[in-house]
From TrEMBL, chain A:
It is found in: Cell membrane. This is Ribose transport system permease protein RbsC. The chain crosses the membrane at residues 25-45, 51-72, 79-99, 105-126, 133-157, 177-200, 233-252, 285-305. One of its GO terms (cellular component) is plasma membrane. It is a multi-pass membrane protein.
TrEMBL record, chain B:
Pfam families: ABC_tran. Residues 21-257, 275-517 form the ABC transporter domain. CDD domains: ABC_Carb_Monos_I, ABC_Carb_Monos_II. Its EC number is 3.6.3.17. The gene is rbsA_1. This is Ribose import ATP-binding protein RbsA. It comes from Thalassovita mediterranea. One of its GO terms (cellular component) is plasma membrane. InterPro entries: AAA+_ATPase (IPR003593), ABC_carbohydrate_import_ATPase (IPR050107), ABC_transporter-like_ATP-bd (IPR003439), ABC_transporter-like_CS (IPR017871), P-loop_NTPase (IPR027417).
């Protein structure tokens, strides 16, 4: 007999079918447990300012993790999200500081550069059939190198572009509700997340993203030009990395060309903790955001408790393994 | 660990270690679908026992059960009178049952000796591999079995036939008493196949039981002592090779005990030709899979595509659809226009729909819902500015569920949890929703139960009455009699003959299927 356990979730953030719902729930429960645990352990933890610090710390990793989620759902992987973020920040620096262009143009250039680089990765993967791991590993190094070359290995400051630092550090919400000065970076993360969730659940691109990860050959035989759609997904992910580049550059009020390496692993960790399957076909943006929050809460909470940073890294590693193991156990049970 | 004693044991095989395996009432079901039912077979040491059957007949499932890859759902396995249960392939190995897979499972960058001795390496002090002893033992074993192979050659540098010999040597070094060979000659040249079969006969003479899977008729009669035929998960029979004929075996493989009642057609096919194929010739890996195939398909007609496994049925449908990426010779004309279809997208654009034979492998997204599956080929057409509303998606899926009477809880039912028949209805429904003019069906009733089969035959008849043209490829001959107006029978990639409804009979189709077989 067929079992009747499928639930149709209607919220756009969650509407990805029942797959992954369990781990998402588990991840959410873990997040709450961590918040409660740290609050009990330290009275300084549950302060508004600390909560805002956690959210601010989530913003860049969260945006990159959203980009990584899209690619991972297709059954691929993107190792270049971190250095692509830096590359886009450097491009913004070149356009704004070196060329003196207006603010909006700098932002558009960063996002455009990101989408273009994503398209290049996508071409390697879809057209040239290079495994995603290799293609994006290559892109990761190319972009790291290019960032250093273009910037002359020096940071580019945005002191001549008034308002650039406000993109991430300002607070539109704080202007409306003064007691809740949530930085714009966080607002941007949530806008990106909701947009990505909408794309995944409602658009043709989103449906093909899941379909490609489930059974690429079946999609091809359904008359879909799989190569083109895959390239579009990588390009979209690249564009989102461009937003990440703007966020980090704005927060530091500079483009730091040496930054970026290691960010891709943090992003992938958030995706995995959030219940997205590395083998593709399953995953949610909501899960990824929860995953990114868990990582930020852990880092912050352990710091508040004065645990050495070395140990914070150890704990994060253990959490990743636990999260995936929980998913394995569940899937084995459900057969 | 391999030792002189296990090689010495070889000599006694003929006398005292012949195996007798008795399978009784073996059945297997996957999520409620029976793929094997009540199979009784006896396999004895010294015999070459061939398993035959079309794709999906249950051969590989049976082999998996014998070799401990999967447990049976019902039934018992006895070895030499003792009931056994293999939970892992390793447990089966311990009882002397070794399987040689269709795909080679060798390590290409290791030497012949290392491959032969894999898992049985002689050790020094339990820590270091004794390379000298390893090479010596491997060399001696190869010499003993009569294989002339250099133990230091990398497997990568061997020809496929030689690699097969390495696989066999590995099986023998494990002291195999029952060796399962899954189409071992499929990748071999004729002379290599001859050598392999000589080796197999020699093993049988030494007392090893051989379970041999093949669909090459000439080979089956050359090598087998007994032949067991499976069809649709049922044991059709076991017979001595010397007491049967190729015709009888084909009858056993494709005939069906339960007669199918012909579908009532109300509207005869129109005279105008919808699809015209002329001189279609295609190669795959240097082998001709289609050779000068020509036929016409009229509007509202169901044209059967018959032939044995490997005759070119699937290749024909895939080539027409564009799924084989062009590169064929010959001309395809659709609705009076010569077309050159190179991708499935081209095929869909021209009103074609292909229902593949492997619905789980490449027909469905098993983890996704009915709705997600149904809209896959429809997305560009039904979406506005790249957005498809859930309402549209669910409406399309609901229509499919109602039109084809899919037994599901709703449009969100995960396809992987449906029965085979309902899965096939989803595939059909997904394609019918695109409004095709030609339906290419490849084994549309494989692996689904009789009731669902009849429903699908009825549906095909009704669709044709409505003016849809259908190519219907199948390995089950009675199906053609049930649904087809005419049929083309392929043999080794060529058209062996075309039959009208009145000319169609089990015998006529069977004879044409073997037209060019050299027996």
């Amino acid at each position: 007999m067929t079992s009747v356990t499928d639930v149709n979730e209607k919220s756009p953030l969650a509407n990805m079918g029942s797959s992954g719902a369990y781990q998402k729930l588990l991840a959410f429960a873990s997040l709450i447990a961590l918040l409660i645990g740290f609050s009990i352990a330290s009275p300084n933890f549950m302060q508004t300012s600390n909560m805002i610090a956690i959210l601010q710390a989530t913003s860049v990793n969260g945006v990159l993790a959203v980009a990584a989620t899209l690619v991972i759902i297709t059954g691929g992987i993107d190792l270049s999200v971190g250095t692509l973020m830096t590359f886009c920040a450097v491009i913004a620096g070149v356009v704004l500081t070196y060329m003196g262009m207006p603010l909006l143009l700098g932002v558009a250039a960063a996002i455009g550069a990101g989408a273009l680089c994503g398209l290049v990765s996508g071409t390697f993967v879809a057209k040239m059939k290079i495994p995603p791991f290799i293609a994006t590993l290559g892109m990761m190094l190319i972009l790291k190198g290019l960032s250093l070359v273009i910037s002359g290995t020096r940071p580019i400051y945005f002191n001549d572009t008034p308002g650039f630092d406000q993109i991430s550090r300002g607070s539109l919400i704080g202007k409306v509700i003064p007691s809740l000065p949530i930085p714009n970076g966080v607002l941007i993360l949530f806008i990106v997340a909701i947009a990505a969730a909408y794309i995944l659940s409602r658009t043709v691109l989103g449906r093909y993203t899941f379909a490609l990860g489930s059974n690429e050959e079946a999609v091809r035989l359904s008359g879909v030009n799989t190569d083109v759609w895959k390239m579009r997904i990588y390009a979209l992910a690249g564009g989102i990395c461009g937003i990440g580049g703007i966020l980090i550059a704005s927060r530091l009020n500079s483009a730091q060309p040496a930054l970026g390496l290691g960010y891709e692993l943090e992003a992938i960790a958030a995706v995995v903790i959030g219940g997205t399957s590395l083998s593709g076909g399953r995953g949610t943006i909501l899960g990824t955001i929860i995953g990114a929050l868990i990582m930020a809460v852990l880092t912050n909470g352990l710091r508040v408790l004065s645990v050495a940073q070395e140990w914070q890294t150890v704990v994060t590693g253990a959490i990743i393994i636990l999260a995936v193991y929980a998913d394995m156990v569940r899937r084995k049970k459900s057969g | 660990m391999i030792s002189a004693s296990s090689l010495a044991r070889e000599d006694h095989r003929a006398q005292n270690s012949k195996i007798t395996m008795q399978l009784s009432g073996i059945g297997k079901s996957f999520s409620g679908v029976n793929v094997l039912r009540g199979v009784d077979v006896e396999i004895s040491g010294g015999e070459i026992h061939t398993l035959m059957g079309e794709n999906g007949a249950g051969k590989s499932t049976l082999v998996k059960i014998i070799s401990g890859v999967q447990p049976p759902s019902t039934g018992t396995i006895e070895i030499d009178g003792q009931a056994v249960q293999f939970d892992t392939p390793a447990a089966a190995n311990d009882s002397g049952i070794v399987i040689m897979h269709q795909e080679l499972s060798l390590m290409p960058d290791m030497t012949v000796a290392q491959n032969v001795m894999l898992g049985q390496e002689p050790m020094i002090a339990g820590l270091w591999v004794d390379n000298k002893a390893l090479r010596e033992t491997a060399r001696e074993a190869l010499r003993k079995f009569g294989f002339s192979l250099d133990v230091d050659t990398l497997v990568r540098d061997l020809r496929v036939g030689e690699q097969q010999l390495v696989e066999i040597a590995r099986a023998l070094i494990m002291d195999a008493k029952l060796l399962i060979m899954d189409e071992p000659t499929s990748a071999l040249s004729q002379s290599e196949a001859d050598i392999l079969m000589e080796v197999v006969r020699d093993l049988a003479r030494q007392g090893v039981a051989i379970v041999y899977i093949s669909h090459r008729m000439d080979e089956v009669f050359e090598i087998s002592d007994r032949v067991t035929v499976l069809r649709d998960g049922d044991l059709i029979g076991t017979t001595l090779a010397s007491e049967t004929t190729p015709g009888e075996l084909v009858q056993m493989m494709v005939g069906r005990a339960v007669e199918i009642k012909p579908v009532q057609r109300t509207v005869p096919a129109a005279p105008d030709v919808v699809l015209k194929v002329e001189g279609l010739t295609a190669q795959h890996q240097g082998r001709k899979v289609l050779d000068d195939v020509s036929f016409e398909l009229r509007r509202g007609e169901v044209l059967g595509i018959g032939g044995l496994l490997g005759a070119g049925r699937t290749e024909l449908l895939e080539t027409i659809f564009g799924a084989r990426g062009g590169g064929h010779a010959g001309q395809i004309t659709l609705e009076g226009q010569v077309v050159d279809l190179r991708t499935p997208a081209d095929g869909v654009d021209h009103g074609l729909a292909l229902i593949t034979e492997d619905r789980k492998g490449n027909g469905l997204l098993l983890e996704r819902s009915i709705a997600d599956n149904v809209v896959l080929p429809l997305l560009p057409r039904k979406s506005r500015f790249g957005v498809l509303s859930n309402q549209t998606r669910d409406d399309e899926a609901q229509r499919v569920i109602e039109r084809l009477r899919v037994a599901a809880t709703g449009v969100d039912h995960t396809v992987g949890r449906l029965s085979g028949g309902n899965q096939q209805k989803v595939v059909l429904g997904k394609w019918l929703a695109t409004g095709p003019s030609v339906l290419l069906l490849d084994e549309p009733t494989r692996g689904i139960d009789i009731g669902a089969k009849d429903e699908i035959y009825d549906l095909i008849g009704r669709l044709a009455d409505q003016g849809l043209s259908v190519l219907f490829a199948s390995s089950e001959i009675p199906e053609f009699l049930a649904v087809c107006d005419r049929m083309v029978v392929l043999c080794e990639g060529r058209v062996a003959g075309t039959l009208n409804r009145e000319e169609m009979s089990l015998d006529a189709i069977k004879d044409l299927s073997m037209q060019f077989e050299q027996l």
